[in-house]
Amino acid sequence: MKLLLVTVYCIVMSALSIQGVAIYNHFVNPGKSIFAGPGESINISSVENKVVMGQLAGNRNLAFGVKGIMEEFLQEQDYTINPYAEKKIEIEILYLDVIKNQSNLSVFHRNSDAVVIRMRGRLIQDDKVKKTVVVEESAEEVSMAALVIDQGGKFNQTNLSAAIKKSCNSLINKLL
After folding, report:
1. Which residues pair with 82 in a beta bridge?
2. Contact at 8 Å (CB) between 140 and 114?
3. What DSSP state is assigned to residue 14?
4. For 90-138, what is each residue's pLDDT tens digit?
5. CA distance 47 to 5
6. pLDDT tens by residue, 18-77
7. Residue 128's beta-bridge partner residues?
8. Paired residues of 104 in beta bridges
9. Could you tell me the sign of the dihedral formed by the alpha carbons of 24, 27, 32, 33, in that order?
């Protein structure tokens, strides 16, 4: 019974000490995290969907997805995501559409759908805009057939995801 009490006491005290250190660092050194690795702290402060036309105009899920992908890319580059970091990135999704190209020769058909996305990113440090970058990326799907009846003009989820990942990667590389 005593061994159980000692074990519980040790667990509770270690949890309280970790919380104490976290609270101390939050107020004394807010730009750093006690759980931060060797990388620099950064925050994706906002992602706004400013697309005005199309199926995904004003879609909050798109903005949420872009924020998640950006955080993944930053963590892969040894940045620590910290909401209290002095270095912040703001993102605006400016344009998103499907560009459709078709070519026909008798019954042979070639169809090309490209999802194009344009984003603007701002690097903010100490509440000052350090750098602003606009990137445009696309992901294309080409299909060929002898006879195709295609409705077209819709977002292919795979192409949309690939275009978002490409643009997030370009944005990070140009900003940082």
Report:
1. none
2. yes
3. H
4. 999 999 887 777 666 666 667 777 888 999 999 999 889 999 999 998 8
5. 49
6. 776 666 666 665 555 544 455 789 999 999 988 888 777 877 888 888 999 999 999 988
7. 125
8. 109
9. positive
Phi-psi label, residue 59: left if phi above 0, alpha if psi -120 to 50, beta otherwise: beta
The secondary element (H helix, E strand) that includes residue 22 is helix 2-28
- 166 and 145 in contact (C-beta within 8 Å)? no
Tell me the helix, strand and coil percentages in the chain, rounded to 5: 35, 40, 25
Measure the CA–CA gap between 160 and 141, rounded to whole angstroms. 11
Lookup: tokens for 37: 């690795």
Three-state SS string across 82-95, please? CCCCCEEEEEEEEE
Identify the band that residue 15 occupies on the pLDDT scale cut at 50, 70 and 90.
low
The DSSP result for 103-146, as a single string, is: EEETTEEEEEEEEEEEEEEEEEETTEEEEEEEEEEEEEEEEEES
What's phi and psi for 170, nearest 5 deg?
-65, -40
User: What phi, psi does 102 have (nearest 5°)?
Assistant: -130, 145
* pTM of this structure: 0.65
Question: Cα dist. 118→69, 107, 142 in Å?
Answer: 15, 35, 21
